[in-house]
Amino acid sequence: MKAAVLEDIDTIVVKEIDKEKPGPGEVLVRVRSCAICGSDIRIMHHGNPRVHFPQVVGHELSGVVAETGEGVEKVKVGDRVAIGADVPCGKCYWCQNGMGTNCRINYAIGYQFPGGFAEYILLNELTMSYGPVHRIPEGMSFDEACLAEPLACAINGLEMAQLGVGDTLAIIGAGPIGCMMIEMGRFMGATRVMMIQRSPHRLEIAKKFGADDYFLSSEENFLDNFLESTEGEGADVIMVACGSPDAQEMSLHMARHRARINYFGGLPATARPITLSSNLIHYKECMVLGSHGSLPRHHLKALKAIESGMVHTAEFISHTFSLDEIEKAIQNAESHEGLKVIVHP
Ligand SMILES: [Zn+2]
Ligand SMILES: [Zn+2]
Predict the structure, then answer these.
(1) Are residues 212 and 286 located together in one domain of the fold?
(2) Residue 67 is part of which domain span?
(3) pTM above 0.90, yes or no
(4) Which of 131, 177, 189, 263 sits at a 20 to 30 Å CA gap from 64?
(5) How far does the centroid of ligand 2 lie from the alpha carbon of residue 302, in Å?
(6) 341 close to 318: Cβ distance less than 8 angstroms
(7) Looking at the domain assignment, is residue 40 inside a domain?
């Protein structure tokens, strides 16, 4: 089978590798769509302690069950399935208590396990037992279904921030997940959604997702304008959906009393430590938290949200490429020209 193998940092090679045969409890899936995520690009350029080369990366995917191993009951040959990233180990304290995003091992497709930039992916027994593998609802395309993975992370993040009815939601970062939060946040109760972004181009793209207000954070007086538009109150929930120390610091100044601030986007390992005026947290009685990845239940919820039209995933797909064109696909994703770039292996 053909696969895009990441052999080393910045060395991705499309080549023939052996197609595996599913053993007991395992499932072979013919991959139809695999979206490029910012974290794939980071792995390609900087590596990741959880990824050992050579490896096939890609963790936002969908396909058709091609072969099942002995004893598999969850799916059958021909089923269309969406596959998420994080696979709870099922055994540690966190996984056994429903908090698999804090799993001690932190397995994920496209990290320790081979990913979706290949014609086929073998889902091991652990993935089939505890992982995010769900049937694609009828009428949903493979391209839309693979976006259930990033949407699942957005849902987990909004849940962690306890977004509720009547809240003002501010999202910093108009990448694909930030834009998904506009739509999802609305359905989770936000009565006002504000999008904040540093670059005009991405802010322009985000306008089709219908936030109430759009702010350029690179503009002078941004913070004054933002606060003024909330009558000096600030936002109830702030999702920092970008990897920027500046944005993390700024978010505290945008917070209303009792706000929940989610440092959703991880910072690059090289980022400076942030400086925060902790009295802002103290006097406003804010909660600053983080969230990371998603649980299988979030992946299932994401598929339902897409099916019901809460999130218009088709609107997020800006470019598609074949597996042979993966380098072009990566460049396109890095250019931030559009939103989601999907590879069709
Ligand atoms: Zn991702
Ligand atoms: Zn675990």
Answers:
(1) yes
(2) 2-151+294-344
(3) yes
(4) 177
(5) 22
(6) yes
(7) yes
